[in-house]
Amino acid sequence: MTMPTGYDKYAFEPFAVTVDLAVFTLRAGALHVLLVERGQEPYAGHWALPGGFVLPTESAETAARRELAEETGLSDVGGLHLEQLRTYSEPGRDPRMRVVSVAFTALVPDPPEPHAGSDAAQARWLPYDTAKPLAFDHDRILADAHDRVGARLEYTCLATAFCPPEFTLGELQRVYETVWGTALDRPNFRRKVLATPGFVEPVPGAARLTGGRGKPAALYRAGAVTTLHPPLLRPSREGRPA
Amino acid sequence: MTMPTGYDKYAFEPFAVTVDLAVFTLRAGALHVLLVERGQEPYAGHWALPGGFVLPTESAETAARRELAEETGLSDVGGLHLEQLRTYSEPGRDPRMRVVSVAFTALVPDPPEPHAGSDAAQARWLPYDTAKPLAFDHDRILADAHDRVGARLEYTCLATAFCPPEFTLGELQRVYETVWGTALDRPNFRRKVLATPGFVEPVPGAARLTGGRGKPAALYRAGAVTTLHPPLLRPSREGRPA
DNA sequence: TTGACTAATAGTCGTTACGACTATAAAGAG
DNA sequence: CTCTTTATAGTCGTAACGACTATTAGTCAA
To answer: Which residues pair with A81 in a beta bridge?
Structure first.
């Protein structure tokens, strides 16, 4: 078999198509992820990634944006970055029926507290490190999303999506350090970022105290470029995930 | 709406889930892609990417391997690289019904001639440059696949998937030049590749004439590593696709 | 057999990038 | 006032990289 010649409706097994969202943010210097507590079986009481069904008139991207708005109240926040991660289609990933799920990664700066949606007991930002174990195959989706974000930081200006519209280089550096879990040399980081054309541009005459302590830092905005040249590689790893 | 509470079968609109394959190879120094000519409406007589429905018991990956075997006769070829690209879910991408398609990219070295499958008029390797226009949204899928392969060459040892088990550095370089569409300096390419630990390993005592002309080249095998450190960046581009 | 021609391999040179540092400046806390 | 904290400036040696030139080892055509 390859393809029913006429596409007869229901001549083949129908699939449910859902979206799952791995939404990251930085809170108090730690990477957090948006999770919902399931209200019903299976996995009642377990934490899971937010998500839901793709409606007949929606693309997966549209469904992801709608679900994100419903779960967190962020509809069109300024620095909203949404990216398709991959699709998970193993039979048996949902014990009830055949569900194919398109996973997305989203990054938000300084988000509001989420309010629990329809069938979730509650929704909350939880530290990434303490997130496991999750329902279904969401542990794997979350790990894949983290890998992807870490890799994207190297080659794109994605880090600015974690920051407010105007930010200091120290804040930007903390994004890298938090996601990668490594410390970076501050002067070298500064040199690299400023030497990459289009990564950040200075806000003329503005300065902000980063919580009040230390010398006030200059403010920057995200630049015009999305791809970093040369890339900002993380220090000394031997093997990264492909 | 977010989610029907009970997952009642057919309580929501069912989707057809398919896979589409962008299979690349190198023939006569040019990038070729595997295409099928559609035998029926819509787009009868147009070229399209090979693909088909995901069966109820399959994952998308399994379906992709099955379709690839059916269309080309390559079942478990040694250097078969299969990677999920992304999922295309826009409503209306198939005029008949709602179809969500998981796209894959595959690379094969020196493939056999394909034989036309079930509902395809014929299957053939066609040069990438002359491939457009294709049926459905396959132009976009193919362009995305090409972008992805080009980017993967920079950071992974993917180029060896285009080569036979034993290859010369000249052949490896031609992979980069063909996919990227740029000429590379031969001594510098050689230095970079040999300086990257685990990329290639020499085959002791073996040498091959690359078509008979010139000095015989040493043979290499693919190394143990999948991720290149440091990356082999393509020369002087200002903006790449994100 | 001899002299193009071709492709592989070796090596050089100057510039830039990068990691590890040290030093200075500007704020708040006690 | 001084200690602490954070931002910013700059230095230095090494490694990487782009642009070359040179040599070697084959085929091919006269």
So the answer is: A107
- Among residues A51, A79, A49, A48, the alpha carbon closest in space to that of A65 is found at A51
B177 vs B186: CA distance, rounded Å: 11
Pairwise CA distance, residues A20 & A89, whole Å: 12
Nucleotides of C under 7 A from a protein CB: 5-12, 17-23, 25-29
Q: What part of A 170-189 touches B (C-beta under 8 Å)? A: none
What pTM value is reported for the model?
Answer: 0.90
Q: Nearest-CA distance from B56 to chain A in Å?
A: 6
pLDDT in tens, B198-230: 999 999 876 776 666 888 999 999 999 998 988
Range of the domain at B73: 16-137
Last residue in a domain, options B137, B169, B199? B137
Averaged pLDDT of chain B: 87
A44 interface with B at CB cutoff 8 Å: no
What Cα–Cα distance (Å) separates residue B140 from each residue in A78, B41, B87, B95? 28, 20, 12, 17
Whether residues A49 and A84 fall in one domain: yes
**Nearest-CA residue relative to C1' of D23:** B215
| Count of domains observed in chain B | 2
Single residue among A104, A137, A170 that ends a domain in this structure:
A137
My answer on whether B169 and B60 are in the same domain is no
Residue B53 has pLDDT above 60, yes or no: yes
Q: How confident is the model at residue B14 (pLDDT cuts 50, 70, 90)?
A: confident
What CATH number has the domain bearing residue A196?
A: 1.10.10.10
Task: Using CB atoms, pick whichever of B56, B89, B90 lies closest to residue A98.
Answer: B56
Q: Record the tokens describing residue B49, joined without a space.
A: 């990417």
Q: What is the pLDDT of residues B158-193, one digit of tens each?
A: 999 999 999 999 999 999 999 999 999 999 999 999
Structural domain includes residue B6? no
**Closest CA–CA distance from residue B207 to any residue of chain A (Å):** 30
Place of tokens 């949902």: A94
Residue B89 in contact with partner chain A when CB distance is under 8 A: yes
Query: Which nucleotide in the DNA or RNA is closest to residue A212, CA to C1'?
Result: C28
Interface test with B, best of A9, A19, A100 (most B CBs within 10 A): A100
Whether residue B32 is found in the same domain as residue B94: yes
